[in-house]
From TrEMBL:
<feature type="transmembrane region" description="Helical">
    <location>
        <begin position="295"/>
        <end position="317"/>
    </location>
</feature>
<feature type="domain" description="Major facilitator superfamily (MFS) profile">
    <location>
        <begin position="37"/>
        <end position="493"/>
    </location>
</feature>
<feature type="transmembrane region" description="Helical">
    <location>
        <begin position="205"/>
        <end position="224"/>
    </location>
</feature>
<feature type="transmembrane region" description="Helical">
    <location>
        <begin position="337"/>
        <end position="364"/>
    </location>
</feature>
<protein>
    <submittedName>
        <fullName>Inorganic phosphate cotransporter</fullName>
    </submittedName>
</protein>
<feature type="transmembrane region" description="Helical">
    <location>
        <begin position="236"/>
        <end position="256"/>
    </location>
</feature>
<dbReference type="InterPro" id="IPR020846">
    <property type="entry name" value="MFS_dom"/>
</dbReference>
<feature type="transmembrane region" description="Helical">
    <location>
        <begin position="376"/>
        <end position="395"/>
    </location>
</feature>
<dbReference type="InterPro" id="IPR011701">
    <property type="entry name" value="MFS"/>
</dbReference>
<feature type="transmembrane region" description="Helical">
    <location>
        <begin position="401"/>
        <end position="420"/>
    </location>
</feature>
<feature type="transmembrane region" description="Helical">
    <location>
        <begin position="432"/>
        <end position="455"/>
    </location>
</feature>
<dbReference type="InterPro" id="IPR050382">
    <property type="entry name" value="MFS_Na/Anion_cotransporter"/>
</dbReference>
<keyword id="KW-1133">Transmembrane helix</keyword>
<keyword id="KW-0812">Transmembrane</keyword>
<feature type="transmembrane region" description="Helical">
    <location>
        <begin position="143"/>
        <end position="163"/>
    </location>
</feature>
<keyword id="KW-0472">Membrane</keyword>
<feature type="transmembrane region" description="Helical">
    <location>
        <begin position="467"/>
        <end position="488"/>
    </location>
</feature>
Length: 532
């Protein structure tokens, strides 16, 4: 048996030894490469993050006491869609009354209060994005991501107890804490993907990993509807919190921050990744220079990416957060149907994300278009297409089949997002992907704070006309932000991401970027030698 044989290339931890003993035996148990084991576990991480994030969106429709307006009331809507369950409810008043005495606890929350609760998650989510990205770049993404999702899982699990004890205030605080935990998710994943994804596989791995968002939305919507149809809203939080705890146990065992810290990755795959992953090729022991903030904050391509992110999140959170309310309050679906029909658009988006990912990689390899043009094309598809579709859905009136069709079409086109701006940070800043993703996601997630509350204000009576106004606002934001991205976006590594390799641009007049201490001392020694 060969033990400790040195190989001839340098990874992020220096020269490494070939596998032997139990590590070699364990590596042979995996039938797929470790980068795809990571991709699958990362997909499940995103899926768990989204189920725990969105399960409240449907659950809240069953947590609140409903009031039915009749003709003559100030807020009566003559254009309201017919409620199929209304007649049944009229003949079951006594049984409904008896059921309420032993049923789940319900709360008297206004539309504005519900909007504030739905937006509370993003108050914490925004704050931890940048610190999470910086920690992931410096110390690795495994524990930053794992620890954050563990805290979210625990908070989700105790939600029923907290809300029954402290009401809307307790739920608001708990959701803010969950946001703190999930804030580092995307930055940590981006930092890890930048170490695990060869350039030619980025779109494919991005589609796999970030497609987990759609699995989370599908599971969160569909199973929440089934659970509440058969039981109570409390069970939704117990189920998804428990699944989050189970995922954390597997993550600890199977995944590592980089290929060179993985104890049982095969020698051939480690060599392949060190030769084909840009962040591993152009690194020395993975010790980065300090984040070049003065260059980063002046980067027009990065700010165009942030603006595009604001637009996308505005449209996405409008769909994710408020589609279940539109289904139940406007189209009058029951909770089981609302769960299923809220999930179907995300099934379409998930499938479409793989199609767009494969198409994007194929076109780039065949040189049909550049990486930069690819990001612009797919971002445009994912922005303007969904905006137009949700407007058409609102003008479908009470034709539920047509309305659902347009919602499905909207999310199908949004699947192009994962081959567009979502992975653009890996193109322009592979070395600081965690920090730049944190900036993009963190600033863009402000949309998650604004949209639920704004829609609550725009739809106080939840009428079709009020929702139509909200959807027009969404289309306007999507189109304007996409135009900015089309003008200023880039698709290649920016100079400040690796200034030693690219040098300073001629127009740069803001002084040198900071280097880590060892590099500064090294440069001084070299200058001294030159003088001697």
């Amino acid at each position: 048996m060969v033990v400790g044989v040195k190989v001839g290339f340098v990874g992020s931890s220096g020269r490494y030894e070939m596998l032997s003993g139990w590590r070699l035996a364990l590596s042979k148990l995996f039938v797929i490469p470790q980068r795809y084991v990571f991709s699958i576990m990362a997909l499940l991480a995103v899926a768990n993050a989204y189920t725990m994030r969105v399960c409240l969106n449907l659950a809240i429709t069953q947590m609140v006491k409903k009031t039915v307006a009749v003709e003559g009331d100030a807020n009566w809507d003559p254009d309201a869609c017919p409620d199929p369950s209304a007649a049944a409810n009229e003949t079951m008043r006594l049984s409904d009354y008896l059921l309420r005495q032993t049923g789940p606890v319900l709360f008297e929350w206004s539309e504005a209060t519900q909007g504030l609760i739905l937006s509370s998650f993003y108050y914490g989510y925004v704050i931890t994005h940048i610190p999470g990205g910086m920690f992931a770049e410096r110390y690795g993404g495994k524990w930053v991501l794992g620890g954050g999702l563990l805290s979210t899982a625990v908070c989700t699990f105790i939600t029923p107890y907290a809300v029954k004890t402290g009401g809307a205030t307790a739920l608001f605080i708990l959701r803010v804490i969950e946001g703190f935990g999930e804030g580092p998710t995307m930055p940590a994943l981006m930092a890890m993907i930048s170490k695990w994804a060869p350039k030619a596989e980025r779109a494919r791995m991005g589609a796999i990993v970030f497609g987990g968002a759609q699995i989370g939305n599908i599971a969160g919507s569909y199973f929440s509807g089934l659970i509440m149809h058969a039981g109570t809203w409390e069970n939704v939080f117990y189920m998804f919190g428990g699944l989050g705890l189970a995922w954390f146990a597997l993550w600890c065992i199977l995944c590592y921050s980089t290929p060179n810290t993985h104890p049982y990755i095969s020698d051939s795959e480690k060599k392949f990744l060190n030769e084909n992953v840009q962040a591993l090729i152009h690194s020395e022991k993975q010790i980065l220079d300090p984040v070049p903030w003065k260059a980063l904050l002046r980067s027009v391509p990065l700010w165009s990416l942030i603006i595009a992110g604001i637009g996308h999140d505005w449209g996405y959170f409008t769909m994710v957060t408020d589609l279940p309310k539109y289904m139940t309050d406007v189209l009058k679906f029951n909770i089981k149907s609302a769960g299923l029909l809220s999930a179907i658009p995300y099934v379409a988006m998930w499938i479409a994300s793989f199609f767009f990912g494969l198409l994007c990689d194929f076109c780039i390899k065949r040189k049909f278009h550049s990486i930069q043009n690819a990001r612009k094309i797919y971002t445009t598809i994912a922005a303007t297409g969904p905006g137009i579709c949700i407007i058409l859905a609102s003008y479908s009136g009470c034709d539920t089949t047509l309305a659902v069709f347009w919602f499905i079409a909207a999310m199908t086109l949004m699947g192009a997002y994962y081959s567009g701006m979502k992975i653009n940070a890996l193109d322009i800043t592979p070395n600081y992907a965690g920090t730049t993703t944190a900036m993009v996601n963190g600033i863009a997630a402000i949309s998650g704070i604004i949209t639920p509350y704004l829609i609550g204000l725009l739809t106080p009576n939840s009428t079709l006309k009020e929702w139509r106004v909200a959807f027009w606002v969404c289309l306007g934001v999507l189109v304007i932000t996409n135009i900015v991205y089309l003008i200023f976006a880039k698709g290649e590594q920016l100079w400040w991401d690796d200034v030693k390799r690219h040098g300073y641009p001629v127009a740069w007049k803001h002084g040198p970027l900071p280097l880590r201490t060892n590099d500064s001392e090294k440069d001084e020694n070299e200058q001294t030698k030159d003088k001697q």
